[in-house]
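Posting here for the record, re: iron/sulfur cluster.
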Amino acid sequence: MLNTVKELVVNWHITEACNYKCDYCFAKWNRNDKDIIHSEWKIDALLRQIENIRHLLNQKSSTVLFETLRLNLVGGETFLYEKQLKTIINLSKKYGFKLSAITNGSLFNSNNIELIAQNFSSIGVSVDSLNEQTNLSIGRASKRNIFNPSNVLTAISQIKNINPNIEIKINTVVSKLNFSEDLSTFIKQIEPTKWKIFKLLPIYSSKLEILDEEFSKFIIQHSNFKCIISAENNDDMTESYLMIDPLGRFFQNGLDQGYHYSSPLHEISAEKALQQINFDCQKFITRYSRII
Ligand code: SF4
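Prediction output follows.
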């Protein structure tokens, strides 16, 4: 029987650059070239291949039909390069993509608030802690400031004023430093449609790694929000996302530390690139079938 899924989500890490220095950050890729967001033709070629992924998966599946595609922009910090972001927005419209983004919430200003409200179907903010010292210890601080939850509340409220239909998401990474913290007040104020809670994935550093029991403690502490919580332990996160790095390559978590890569998608077809990372099309489709 053919089920219908509204959208296929492809995550593109548009840059490695970030003004924060989180200890657990996995936004680090082996590379010796510039992020492709600085080249319009490369962005265009990449987006064309991303659209091909949707057709490819539809051809291979008799159970799932991906009607639309949402390009989820991730970083580094997604709002560091406004000009390049505008190019991505314009080219995404050409391919009919929906857009969403994840940000660390430190660079909201009147320009990007307008841009987000008018062009994005959802915006996600990473919030691990409301405590200044904890944010400092995690590395959620730039040279100029420490993560400020009040600024995020204000920006989100301005975005919602312009676009009341936009979905607000919060992402939280649970580690040694915040597994006992209570974020309930903030979550109540921000009223997200989804709260994704991740157990710290030790890709490059295991310093803040936690036990399953500690992760569960955080989830239980926030059980009042269970209807919006989506909790992911390390197994859920492994090989279950379509992820593209700042050079336009698919990448996947390896069994050991670090990533496996395909060739850049602006150089070869999506089909060939997927074969290079041993992408299991059927497994991916089956996962989508389960979540319908
Ligand atoms: S905010 Fe995100 S991209 Fe920046 S250092 Fe932290 S985890 Fe990495």
